[in-house]
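Entry 12.
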Amino acid sequence: MSRPPVRAVALAGAAVCGLTACSGAHAGERDGLTVAVTSYPLEYVTEQVGGEHVTVQNLTPRGGDSHGLEPTPRVVLALAEADVVVHLSGGMQPGVDDALAQQPTEHLVDAADLADRPPDPHFWLDPVRLAELGDRVADGLAGADPAHAEEYAQAADRLGESLQALDAEYAAALAPCRGATLVAAHEAFGYLADRYGLRQVGVTGLDPDVEPSPARLRRAAEAVRDSGARTVFFEAAAGPAVARTLADDLGVTADVLHPIERVEGDESYPELVRDNLTALERGLVCHG
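Predicted 3D structure (tokens):
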């Protein structure tokens, strides 16, 4: 799908802003900070760190695909009006990258270097990496709102402790599974696999909407047979068809593993992380 030129969208956003007199509504003129974020994991961290001092606007609608976020006038306007922007640059949302390049924001927290497995952006599946983002968000918020800097730092410390506890749960539960093969329909679990000593084999690559090639299907089938893997994991939002077809052909099961980039209803990061751990304990071949 083609997207409108960023410059044209930016001009449209500026026109809307002029009509509504929205420019100049900064932190000193209202209660708290307005923070624009571009995906759910960034929203979770920002809400935990900012607490009552921030209003967080996730530019990806609840349940929406963050990979599909385009620089519409609404998005450009939100980026322009935010006191702080929390974003993951580097290609996951190239339209937003372009918009921010043409319309820089004073307080930008960019998580790009935490996602160092290009082109896989899902660094938040490693709780240790997500804790580091919490510290950066605290610094970014403090830059825009120095009066509450200590509160942001303390909140980031609390978030870090909760994420370290999740990491400890994973490390203890998956210690007997080191070296196990994680067969995933959507190849989104590389950071999780790296952290806990698993070997990820993807059926479709990073894009769950792309039909797997015969070569990829053969590779995944060989990995299941050679490793004795007993589960093919799939993302619920993408549908189970590919995973279940492969699982049925090989006589293994299919189960859900959540990449936590789009969420529905009242789902939360800690809840989904623990659901993933339960699925991994159930589906991986572990020893001891």
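Annotation: The beta strands are 33-37, 54-58, 84-87, 108-110, 181-184, 199-202, 231-234, 253-256. The chain has two domains: 6-169, 178-283.
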